[in-house]
Design goal:
Length: 188
Amino acid sequence: SPVATFNAQGDAATTNETLDLNGPDGTGLLVGYRYYRQQHLTPLFPFGFGLSYTTFSLANLKITTLSAATNATVTVTNTGKVQGRCVVQGYVTFPARASEPPAQLRAVGSITLEPGATGKVQLSVPRSALEVWLSGSTTVVPGTYTLAVGQSSADLGLAGSFTLSSSAAAGVAGEARGPLGVRRAPQG
């Protein structure tokens, strides 16, 4: 069973305190919206759901991969009768080799639109948000990723894919990180 250990500074270390990533019920990282998706369940209020007095439609997902990030642009139209703010969410599914739960929230953007107006929202997934813990260090797994975009974890109507080569994936591997992927400042 995978076990991660951290010292008081948040660095990977051997201590008596452990965090069992499988959990007592065996769900591991499949908690919350990830569990619902894996079990094909639709909660009344899915993760990311927000009430609004208007409605929006999303279209034209375009994905661009750069050295430091993967960016996506989506067109949003206010299809309702009043002004409103649309929060667009980007969920990444990793290549199988990464052994990560599907559809992880990795980017958010928003726009306020008048009724009938259309605008563009840009999402950015930094390369560091694609890091996983494999073989004792953080790494970005080369392969094909899926980026699904919508207004909640249960409303991902647009999807596209992007591929990272082993050289692009190597760009952030080995940087010093604490738990939860937070960059640690160099010591000294």
